[in-house]
Amino acid sequence: MEIIGGSCRFGLWFVHVWWNDKTVHRVRFSRTGIPGGVPELIQRYCAGHVLNLSQLDTPAIREDTVYSRIYRAVQQVPYGSTSTYGEIAAGSGTSPRVVGQAMARNPVPLVIPCHRIVAAGGIGGFSSPLEIKEALLSMEKKGLRKGVK
DNA sequence: AACGTACACTTAT
DNA sequence: ATAAGTGTACGTT
Fold first, then answer.
1. Whole-structure pTM over 0.85, yes or no?
2. Nucleotide nearest to A133 (CA to C1')
3. Looking at residue A78, what DSSP letter applies?
C-alpha cells in the first residue's frame, strides 16, 4: 500500500505524518503544514484527548535490534507519566547513553513517546525544540487532571 | 575490519 | 563541579 503524508496542528506546530492504514512510518514536527490527513488517533491526541498512540503500528518496533528493544520499552510508559533514560536502559538491557541515542534517532515521535523519557536530574534533551517536549508533557499532565477534555 | 569520536546519561569523587 | 564509565553507531582510515 502506498504511503501517504499529511499534517495536523499541535499548538504552534504542525505534526507531519507519513503513514498508510494503521502503520506509521515517519513523524516529525514543523512550523508549517502540508496537505493531507493524519490517522484519526493522532488527530485526537493532538486535540488533547487522553489516548495512547503506542497502539499504532510502526516498523521501528518490529526489528530485532537494540533500538527496537528500547522503543518497545518506551512504548510501555503510560500517558501522562515519565520514565528516565536509566530506567529504560535497565528494562531493555543496555546503557542510558544508548537510550539517548535511540531517542534522538526516533523516527516516529508520539507513536514512540520519547518525550516521556527524561533525565535522572532534569528534563533531558530533545531533537526538535525542547519546547515541544515540554508542551507535550504539560498537555498530558493537564489531560490526566481533567479526566478527558 | 579496526579505530576514534560522539552522544537527548549516570554515578561516584 | 568534575570526571570516569557506559553501549552503540557512524565516519574515517
1. yes
2. B8
3. P
